[in-house]
Amino acid sequence: MRLYFFILAMLIIVTGLLANEWQLVWSDEFDYEGLPDSTKWDYEVGFVRNLEMQYYTPARLENARVKNGKLIIEGKKERIANPIYTPGSDSWMRQREFGYYTSASLITLNKASWTYGRIEVRAKLPQGNGVWPAIWTVGANKAKIPWPACGEIDIMEFVGKDSNHVYGTVHYRKDDKTKSIGGKFQNESLSTEFHIYAIEWFQDRIDFYFDDNKYFTFSIDDAGIGENNPFRKPQFLLMNLALGGSWAGDIDDSIFPQKYLIDYVRVFQSKKTENPNKFEPLRTYIQTWLSRTATTKPIITSSFLKEKIIDDWANQNGKYQIVSVRKPDDYTNAGHIPHAINIYWIDILNDSSLARLDPHKTQILYCYYGHASMLSYTILSLLGYRCQNLEFGMMDWNLDALVKEPWDQKADYEIETTKNLSKETHPLPTIISEQTDHKNLIKEMAAKYFAGEGSPIITSSEVKAIIDDWEHKKIKFQIVSVTSKKDYQKGHIPHATNISLEKIAEIDNLMKLDPNRITIVYSDNGQTGQLAATVLNLLGYKAVALKFGMMDWNKSYVDQSKQWDGTATYPIEKGNR
Predict the structure, then answer these.
(1) Per the structure, how many domains does the chain have?
(2) Does 321 fall in a domain?
(3) At what angle do helices 438-451 and 279-293 cross, to 10 degrees?
(4) What would you report as the CA-atom Rg of the chain, rounded to the nearest whole angstrom?
(5) Burial 138-173 (b: 16+ CB within 10 A, else e)
(6) Which domain CATH number covers 462?
C-alpha cells in the first residue's frame, strides 16, 4: 500500500512538472555594454511615489548601465535640479527644488507586457539603511485604470533596515479598499550573493519563489471573479532602486554609492498555454519590432537603387536581392527592374516563395505604386528578413516620374486643423491560436488578412464619400493619421485621430480603436500608412490604407501621365527570372 501511494505521489509530481514546462518568450541577458536596450526598456523620471528621496533619471549611464554582463542600477548621493519645481505647490513632487539622491527605474511599459507565465530575475541587492530595490509588475492599463485597481505584483522587495528578508506581495482594490497580501523569505546573503527572484503566474494563483523555495501563494480569485480581475490582464515589468520614503525610512549617507546588480531577466510562458488568447504576446512582439524600425529607414529611393546598387550589381549582388511582388503577367510582359525575381504578394507566405528569399541578403521589395510591397515588407520583416521598400514602386522608375511634393495644404478636399481626441476606450481583439512561436503566429494572421474580403487600400475619393456621409458612416469607420504630430496639426482629414507609427501597437493607443469598425489609416505618402494598416490587421483589426496618403488628398493630385508606362528612362527587363 505504501508503494502504491509513493508511485501515485510521484505521478502527481511528474504530471505537474510536465504541465508547467516553460518556453522563453522575452529576456535581457545584458550581453552588451552601455545604456540598457531601448527596444526593451524605458524609464520613470523624477520624483514618482511613496515620498521617496531619489530623483529617477532617464538614460543616464551614472544611474543605469550595462557592463561586464550585468545591469547596474546605481543610487548616488548628488544634487540634481527638479525641472517641475513649483514654489507653493501642494504636490510633494513639485515642492522640492532639488533632489539630493539619484537612481533609476527601468520599465517595459508600452514595450512588453504579459499575462501569466514565469518571470525570473537573478540579482544581487544593495545594502544599508535607506535602500529599497524592487522587482515588480503593474497593470499595463494603469493609464486608464489607476493603482491599485490595475493590480501590482511585487516579485521582490527589500529594505536595507531589514537586511535578511525579501518580500513578495500583491496589491489590488476590492470592496472599495486597497488590499495587500504577501509573504517573506529569510536569507543572510542577499547583498553578498546573487539569487533568483521569481513568480509563476497561473490563471488561478501566483506562486512566489526565492531561488528554488516557494514561500507564498496568492489565490487570484481573492481579487475578484471574472474579467475585471487585474491579475487576469497584462502587466508590465519594473526594476528600480528607491531610496528612503514611506517604507525604507531614513537614509544613511555613508553607504553611497550603492549598486543593484542584475544578471538577467527572463520571461517564460507555458508550452501548454493556459491562455489561448495570443493577442498580447503578438502585440508585444510587433511593438518591439516597431520600436526598432523607428531607428531604421524602411524606404529606398529609385535613384539610390539605380545608381548605387543596379549600376554596381557585380559588387552589390552579394548584399541585395530585388523582389517584385507584382502580378506575374505584369512582371513578365510589362517589364521589371533588372535582376528582380517575382513573387506575387498574395503568395509571399508560401513555403516555396520564402525558399526563394536569401535570408543573408537585404530584400528590396517593389510593386507598382508602393503599397503591396510595403505590406510584404512589414510581414517579411516581422519574420526576420532584412527588407527595404522601393518608394512609389514601379511608378517612380523614371527620373521625372510621379510628382512627389508633400501635400501643399491646398487640398480640393476639406481638412481640419483642430485635434480630434478619442473619447472612448474599446476592448482589445482576441486572437485564438494554437501557435506558440511568434513567426508562425505572424504567418497565421497574415494568411487570414490575405484571405479577407476587399482591397488592402482605399482611394481618396472613397474616403471623401465616407466623410460626406459621416453621421451614418462613423458607425462603420474610424480614421487614423500616422503622420507626425506637426504635420497632423497643419491639417488632417476630417474626424482623424493621430497616433504615431512607432506607437501604433501600444496598448493605450490600441484601446482607442474599435475592433468592430474598419480603420482607415493614412500617412504623408501612403507607404508608412500601409505599414501601420498591415500591423493592425495582424493584430486582428480590419484596416485599410489610404492610397498615396495625404499626397492624394486632392481630386487630381497624382499626375497619371507621369507614371511609369513601360518606356522608363531607367532600364527594365522582360521575361522571367
Answers:
(1) 2
(2) no
(3) 90
(4) 27
(5) bbbbbeebebbbbbbbbbbbbbbeebeebbbbbbbb
(6) 3.40.250.10
What the block records as the C-alpha cell of 480 is 487614423
Pairing outcome for strands 477-481 and 152-157: unpaired
Three state DSSP letters for 74-97? EEEEEEEECCCCCCCCCCHHHHCC
Catalytic residue numbers? Answer: 152, 157
Q: Note the helical H segments in 182-304.
A: 245-248, 279-293, 302-304
Nearest to 231 by CA among 268, 210, 200, 196: 200
Cα separations in angstroms, 201 against 13, 167, 170, 263, 575: 18, 17, 12, 22, 58
- 537 inside domain: yes
Residues 6+ apart with CB under 8 A from 29: 69, 264
The CA distance from 369 to 347, in Å, is: 18
If you count them, how many residues does the chain have?
577
Residue 541 in any domain: the answer is yes
pLDDT digits (tens), the chain, 577 positions: 444 443 444 444 334 444 458 999 999 999 999 999 998 999 999 999 999 999 999 999 999 999 999 999 999 999 999 999 999 999 999 999 999 999 999 999 988 999 999 999 999 999 999 999 999 999 998 888 899 999 999 999 999 999 999 999 999 999 889 999 999 999 999 999 999 999 999 988 999 999 999 999 999 999 987 667 999 989 999 999 999 999 999 999 999 999 999 999 999 988 764 557 888 889 888 988 888 776 777 899 888 999 999 999 999 999 999 999 999 988 888 888 999 999 999 999 999 999 999 999 999 999 988 899 999 999 999 999 999 999 888 877 765 444 445 455 555 667 778 888 877 888 889 888 878 788 889 999 999 898 887 789 998 889 999 999 999 999 999 999 999 888 888 888 999 999 999 899 988 899 999 999 999 999 988 889 999 999 999 999 999 999 988 888 765 444 454 444 555 455 656 666 5
Nine-digit cell string for 94: 513639485
The three cell numbers locating residue 361: 541578403
Dig out the grid coordinates for 318 from the structure: 552579394
Does residue 173 belong to any structural domain of this protein?
Answer: yes
Q: Are 346 and 339 in contact (CB under 8 A)?
A: no
Best CA proximity match to 164, nearest among 131, 186, 191? 186
The CATH number of residue 194's host domain is: 2.60.120.200
Give the Å distances, CA to CA, from 173 to 154, 205, 222, 235, 524. Answer: 15, 17, 10, 16, 45
**CA 508/CA 109 separation, integer angstroms:** 10
Instruction: List the domain range (segments joined by +) for residue 495.
Output: 444-552
Q: Answer whether 0.70 is exceeded by the pTM.
A: no
With beta carbons less than 8 A apart as the criterion, state whether 483 and 502 touch: no
Chain centroid to Cα 329, Å, comes to 38
CB atoms within 10 A of CB 176: 5
